[in-house]
Amino acid sequence: MRRAVRPILAEGDVVVGLSGGPDSLALTAACIAEARRRDRDRPAPDPPGAAAAVHAVVVDHRLQPGSAGIAAAAAATARRLGGTAEIRAVEVIDDGAGPEATARAARYAALGAAAARLGRPLLLGHTLDDQAETVLLALARGSGTRALAGMAPRRAGPGGVALLRPLLGLRRGRTRAACAELGLEPWRDPHNDDPRFTRVRVRRRLLPALERELGPAAAANLARTAELARADADCLDGLAAAELDRIRAGAAPGADPAGLPAAAVAALHPALRTRVLAAWARDAGAGALTSAHLAALDRLAAAAAAGAAAGGRVRLPGGLVVGHNGGTLAAGPGAADGGAPP
User: Fold this and answer.
1) Which reaction equation describes what this protein catalyses (predicted)?
2) Average pLDDT of each block of 10 consecutive residues along the chain (342 residues)?
């Protein structure tokens, strides 16, 4: 566990997202132990009141009875181990994305704000099991390579902070064993045992069944699939960005600089075409796009390239409406109706 965080701590101090569960608790303990080893010859202590080398942030979603006490206990454990800690209470208001997604967005925003304030990377305790579950969920939804790529071990997080997941190569059993060895009592989130949640059913039923029937390497192989898909998705995204720049540079003189020539887009390979359309829509202010939104944009681009009369429209999240005129796609404000595709 400590080997997984050692290279990160060698670069500087960190913020850890701590829920009190076994994964984040083991991560916090490993980081504090490694920071103590790193700083054993440190000439002077930190000034009073300063954040320690490992600063834990506990987010209280206020969705369960007693959540304030649970958050306080997690923060107290981090302090007892030798770190500093803060609790951030958030308000979770479902905006239509669902309670899980809304709570996740609020949590990441709070964690990112704390890490940005301290100018440190943010570490999260996701494990190989979490990665395998994410891949299975993406497969069941018919997702593309970006979703199959699962969780990146390192990416830009909220507020531009570096978001790191150093435990993605470790099984969940390792974090539980680490907590037991250290005498730590993790909090058991009742939501993690509630079969009403799809991920819980994947965790409790589907993944164990796959490991029984296909062998104990099934989870590791799913995580490996995520690595391969991430490499492919990164390559395709880079090619699509270059194509979008090329198309914009080749637009006719006097053309709308924010528009997108449909014929140039329609000529692309489908794997690039949908990515170009997605990147262009995001640049125009669209919110999170689904496969249905991208399919509708693809049909609109094909119709515009074929010379169809203006009039077709696609509504996107963020109150954006895309239409076409004279063979060029154009995006503008529309009714903020959640972006249901036509």
Assistant:
1) cytidine(34) in tRNA(Ile2) + L-lysine + ATP = lysidine(34) in tRNA(Ile2) + AMP + diphosphate + H(+)
2) 96 97 98 95 66 95 90 97 96 74 90 97 98 97 94 93 98 97 94 90 97 97 98 98 96 86 96 97 92 95 91 90 92 62 50
- Domains with residue ranges and CATH for the chain: 1-40+52-227 (3.40.50.620), 251-332 (3.30.465)
User: Has 24 been labeled as part of a binding site?
Assistant: yes
**d(Cα 114, Cα 84) in Å, to the nearest integer?**
12
Residue 159: left if φ>0, alpha if ψ -120 to 50, beta else—which one?
left
In the numeric block, the tokens 């991430």 are attached to: 230
- Give the whole-angstrom CA distance, residue 52 versus residue 84: 5
Residue with tokens 């006490």: 69
Tell me the Ramachandran region of residue 178: left when phi exceeds 0, alpha when psi lies from -120 to 50, beta otherwise.
alpha
Q: How far apart are CA 330 and CA 341, in angstroms?
A: 16
Residue 122 CA, chain-centre distance (Å), reads 13
Give the DSSP letter string of 243-287: HHHHHHHTSPTT--TT-EEHHHHHTS-HHHHHHHHHHHHHHTT--
Q: How far apart, in whole angstroms, are the C-alpha atoms of residue 341 and residue 111?
A: 33
Structure tokens at 339: 């972006």
Is residue 21 marked as binding? yes
Concatenating the DSSP letter of every residue in 301-328 gives HHHHHTTPPBTB-EEETTTEEEEEETTE
CB atoms within 10 A of CB 121: 19
Strands 320-325, 328-333: pairing is antiparallel
Q: CA 116 → CA 30, 109, 122, 306, distances in Å?
A: 22, 10, 9, 48
Q: Are 123 and 15 in contact (CB under 8 A)?
A: yes
CA distance 43 to 153: 33
Q: Does 291 show up as a binding residue in the annotation? A: no
Determine whether the annotation assigns residue 342 to a binding site. Answer: no
